[in-house]
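Rotation project, supervised by the postdoc (A.L.). Task for the rotation student: set up a whole-complex structure prediction and record inputs and outputs verbatim in this book. Inputs entered:
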Amino acid sequence: MIDERYIELMNGEIDGINSPAESEALEAYLGTHAEARRYYNELRRLAEMFDETAALEPPGELRERILSAISERERPLERPGIREILTAPFHAKPRRKLGLAFCAGLVIGLLIFAAIAKFAPLETPGDIELLTGTLRIDPGKRILSAEPLDFDLSEVSGHARISYTDKRILAELELSSRSEIEVIFNYEKDIHLEGLTVSGPGSHTTETKARETHLTHTGDRDYVFVFRNYQGTMVPINITIRAGKDRLLEETILPRRK
Amino acid sequence: MSEDTSNPKLEISGDDPKAFERIVDEYEKKIFNLVYRMVNNYEDAMDITQTAFMKAYDKRDYYNPNYNVFSWLYKIAVNEAINFIQKRKRTVTLAYDPVSRGRNPEERLSQAEEADRIQSALATLKPDHRVIVVLRHFLDLSYNEISDILDLPLKTVKSRLFTSRQRLKDILIKQGR
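Outputs recorded:
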């Protein structure tokens, strides 16, 4: 039976972190314990095997793939200039001009209606059903959605989608698990949980902390978290899924234009 | 925080793609090796490495220059590899022999067989143990650097490393006799 303290010293010796006194103590121990000496030699041989394993060369096309993908990210969208956009209706055919005039009148009418609605009394903050309707119907709002995240893990399967307006972040979560799992939303300061709706069989608890919202879940449930974003800019949301001490998934969701 | 001796002043944020190109040139091989050792498949390692760099590029404005570039990059790559493994739920054996370049046939065969054995043995470890062995032995990182990247206590890093070495030793050394 090898003393645990010396197993730690053996590993330290291989990693080159032992002090001279520790190396000396280890050598003295190995000199009198054949089993320990054998164990240490095997450990050293293992480290040598790893050292002798050549580093892999990545495929030649990998660098180009990465850089091409970055260039695609940076390429500006091809759009007509302002002049072309403004003068296009005046170059259209008569019937088309009539149609464009009708549409222009409709848009102006909707904008006036939206302006009137904006000054109407506010609904209670946290009323999720109303907020969802506002996100989907209000023509004045831009909704930007991140790439949806689908997962099929050992303990849980489901779907997550993050959407942004100028003042709110909507996190839709579908979870299916037999045992208890924890979902943690992690975000920057000035983001606060404003409301939550839940549907489906199962159970859950939520807890908010500084820059985090924790959801403990079991069963098949759909969640809609609404966060108030006081930052004024779209920020990434980090999602971590755990089962006990095991981290099953960690993903950072970033906004993209639809 | 440990010292980034490769190039501590690499610029990573901003809108200049050329700056990030230098990051790719500096770390492409290390990230690829890390990912490959984790997922044990050459094609998957290529895809995951690309994804890791793209995520790093997308998050470059959130990078804190008080921390090492490599710690930040490795953390992203490790998360991507572990997420991939969790979704895959199985380990794919090596289909491509990347070691066998520029050697005579006997050496190539011997080295390829040894590399296969090492990869197969690594694949028997749980991902959260495997990553520590890979970071220590294939990227030559210290316990403290590993602790930073994985956000684990030093004690846990050591415990998992020592346990993993014992297991690998039993597979590769004892059984190899």
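Student's summary: Residues 17-39 of chain B form the longest helix (23 residues).
Supervisor addendum: The two ends of chain B are 42 Å apart (CA to CA).
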